[in-house]
Amino acid sequence: MNNREFEKKYYNDRKKSNSVKWQEGRKQNCLPMWIADMDFRPDEKIVKALNDFISYGDYGYATLPEDYYEVLNNWSQTRHNISINKEWVRFSQGAIDGLYQILYALTNEKDGVMINTPVYHPFKATIKETKRTVIESPLINNNGYFTFDYKDIEKKFAKGNVKAIILCSPHNPVGRVWKKGELEELLDLCHKYHVLIISDEVHNDLIMPDQEFIPTLAFKKFQNETIVFSAVSKTFSFPVYQNCHVIIPSKKLRTKFDTYQKHMHRKENDFNALPTYYGYKYGAEWLDTVNRIIFENYNYFYDKLAKYYEITPLEGSYLIFVNIGKHCPSKNASDYLIKKCHILTNSGEAFGGKKYKKWVRVNLATSLANVKKAVKELEKIAK
Description:
By secondary structure, the protein is of the alpha/beta class. It has 14 helices and 15 strands. α5 runs parallel beside α6 (122-129).
């Protein structure tokens, strides 16, 4: 199935739906290219499996499907070349819910927790709300290509208060898929200074055709100091089903986390886990095509607009970071695009502070027709 055939079959016209993404678009009379969900229906085999479950009418107490962990491990081995032991896996209602739990269970108040800005803004909010200390180590921007500042990271690690780092891999919003050497250098520093690695990998299946995703768990020597969040909320656009894997190889850390979850009466939601299960069983071919469409959308966007704007290269996820500063007389780029282009994006300031007020995050997980509409408007204000 080519990209246009796929769009015809799976593009979901959400203009009148209760989708948060499109509701806000209607409210502001804008094309919504902001919040991280996509405009494609899941593979029909996934939908049928969910419909069959609902139609059967058995809503009593349940457990996970017997082969749930086998299906999870098969997906991890096939897509990411790593094995996931059943004993490692715990559950949360999403990566941010998992982050709250990890910080409460495994760190103490006032402990330093590092983030690499610009980065997914709930990380910072979660650190503050759990009364931990935010330690920022900004990424280095090389003409739109963002990298770690290892000297700054080590300088801040050496002070002794950083107890954990939240790694965003692939990175939201700059779209980086970290290379093996980049990750190894960072993880070596974490090991040297006894810093817990908390890796948010919920975009790990959305990898562009010319890239390779390296899971943090691929580094076996660091597994016992690494915790990973993995989910299909982005893979198959299932955020309404709040099911996230919290993968903890270390028995010592798992025991602490289990104690916390028991105290808070937390466990997996067996119904919310079904879309994950069916997605991993039936969604591989669908996902491959979605990744091709996202990459096509990015190439169109970049080819048309790179001469006007600074645009991050898209290696993973469906999110790009765009600096429209040269063509933005307003104080805030996202507000300007609402008024002048009728495009709704995420404000860059939310991800990295005032330094990024002329930046926006753009969601490309939509039809090529929608991308072309956005590009046409962005060309107008640049010319």
